[in-house]
Amino acid sequence: MILRKINQHNANLMTSQSADIAFVVNLDYLGLPYDTCRMFWLIIERAMLDAGFELDGREFIAPNKQAAIKLARAVMAKLEPTFESLGYSRFEAVREFYCYKRRSRIDLNIADAVDSFDVEEIPDIPG
Questions:
Q1: 88 domain residue, yes or no
Q2: 62 is a domain residue
Q3: Residue 44: which pLDDT band, with cuts at 50, 70 and 90?
Q4: What is the pTM (predicted TM-score) of this model?
Q5: What is the pLDDT of residues 21-42, one digit of tens each?
Q6: ∠ at Cα 69 (59, 35), nearest 5°?
Q7: Inside any domain, residue 116
Q8: What confidence tens digit (pLDDT) does each residue in 111-121 have?
Q9: Residue 62 CB burial class (10 angstroms; 0-12, 13-18, ≥19)
Q10: What is the DSSP annotation of 48-95?
Q11: Angle at 68 between CA 93 and CA 23, to 5 degrees
Q12: Which domain holds residue 38?
């Protein structure tokens, strides 16, 4: 009975995750002081959460829609004056800013060995 509920919960989780897109923001941790990166992260985190994204670890999650990609880009662009007021451009502070469909992620810490997997090419998004 308990096992069945756990399996059902995991199935529901997998279904909802497969429709999600994850946004990753990696700062220049090697080139910037720790305190600066921490401050930038808190600023980005607050802005993304205020825009409606959910935080899962260090990834911002949203339904897989074109609007989410445009919104994430708009949030980061809106932060440019804040970065500049602190003496950095957004492009100096943020090394990577990308997204991916969560269903394509394989957590190697928990997943069984994978014999093969399919890769789906996502067309470039204008804008």
A1: yes
A2: yes
A3: very high
A4: 0.71
A5: 999 999 999 999 999 999 999 9
A6: 40
A7: no
A8: 565 555 666 67
A9: buried
A10: HHHTTPEEETTEEEEES-HHHHHHHHHHHHHTHHHHHHTT--HHHHEE
A11: 40
A12: 32-103
